[in-house]
Amino acid sequence: MNKQLPTVLAIDTSCDETAAAVTHGTEVLSNIIWSQAAAHADFGGVMPSLAQRLHRERIDWVIERAVKLGGVKIDMVAVTKGPGLAIALEVGIAKAKGVANKLGVPLVPINHVEAHLLSPLATPKLKEKGLKSNSSPQIQYPALGLVVSGGHTELFLIEKIGKYQVLAKTQDDALGEALDKAARMLGLGYPGGAILEKMAEKGDPSKFKLPLPMAGREDLRLFSYSGLKTAFYRLIEEQKDLDKQTIYDLAACFQRRAFEHLIRVIRKTINEVPFDSILVGGGVVANKSLRKILRRSFKKVWFPYSPKLIGDNAAMIGVAAGLKLGGGLLIADLKPEEVDRKPRWSVEDL
Ligand code: KG4
Ligand code: ZN
């Protein structure tokens, strides 16, 4: 273990996952996630007040488990400061301040989207002595980065760790949000992205015609899903019978168009900003067909090594802290009381 780097207890309560982890540099020593998805399912989306209550109920248990499994002394606490749901962020930040004060260690604030962006650089725990180091992928900077989640769809130029430029972003819904809404229109439940994927696997993606968003205007570097959503709603209304196969076909058509649009904008952008490798993070990376399309489009694509690093988690927060500390980019002597939530926080304003 490189003694130069501190071991970090990381906490994320930005949305509907109560998460804590222990990391050291890019190494993930523990990664505990208590999903609230089932509790929000009845509402068809995240209820902020319910999220806050559940975070409060679960945060201590999640931290205790992460610390126990981590099995090391904690030198620093890292917490998601934003973006996210204000009253949910608040719970993790208050707890992080308490823990940092109690242990007498510094507290560092981390941007949740930056953490998704850097999540492919996380490395697994070295379980056995003598095991060769699982080092982080060797990335040549500047590099490209993509975050596709329930709240974000952004293509970045990573000039170096800590310095990012947005190359393309959504002008309305995020990709995950659009997939969730399409699933809801089909009555498939919440969170819909993963269920839609399962349905789409059994469907014919060319069965129905759906418009391709921003067709011919990809140079504007904007993703857009609202028109596709409206067209999808109409298409569903037109169906006389929503039998199983029709639902599979509809799911397949929506998913294909949504991904096709994403890739077309990315391709257009990389024609102008030539890169052959890309880091990809965020919940939608769980989707197998998206991963396949991205692998086809780039020579090198870096995804997080584990599904537990794809959806919301705290290990990516700790790893982002580790990478930034390694690069001398974090002020590690902040007083815990100086850290406050920032529900809207762009990665360009770090
Ligand atoms: O990163 P994440 O857990 O939370 C945010 O920061 O938003 O992303 C959640 C999003 C949801 O929209 C969810 O439906 C989507 O990721 N998602 C998927 C899959 N699994 C989760 N979308 C498509 N296919 C999946 N298998
Ligand atoms: Zn997220």
Can you put this structure into words, describing what you see?
By secondary structure, this protein is α/β, with parallel strands linked by helices. It has 2 domains: 7-122 and 305-349, ATPase, nucleotide binding domain (Nucleotidyltransferase, domain 5, 2-Layer Sandwich); 143-302, ATPase, nucleotide binding domain (Nucleotidyltransferase, domain 5), CATH 3.30.420. The protein is built from 10 helices and 11 strands. The protein has helices spanning 37-41, 48-70, 86-103, 112-118, 175-185, 192-201, 226-238, 244-272, 288-297, 315-326, and strands spanning 7-12, 17-24, 27-35, 76-82, 107-111, 143-148, 153-160, 163-170, 222-223, 277-281, 300-302. The protein has a 6-stranded mixed sheet with strand order 9-8-7-6-10-11. Strands 3-2-1-4-5 form a 5-stranded mixed sheet, sandwiched between helices. Helix 4 crosses helix 10 (315-326) and helix 6 (192-201) crosses helix 8 (244-272). The radius of gyration is 20 Å and the shape is globular. The two termini are 29 Å apart. Bound molecules: 5'-O-[(R)-(carboxyoxy)(hydroxy)phosphoryl]adenosine and zinc ion. 5'-O-[(R)-(carboxyoxy)(hydroxy)phosphoryl]adenosine (KG4) binds at residues 15, 149-151, 176-177, 179-180, 191-194, 197, 282-284, 286-287, 311-312. Residues 112, 116, 149, 312 line the site of zinc ion.
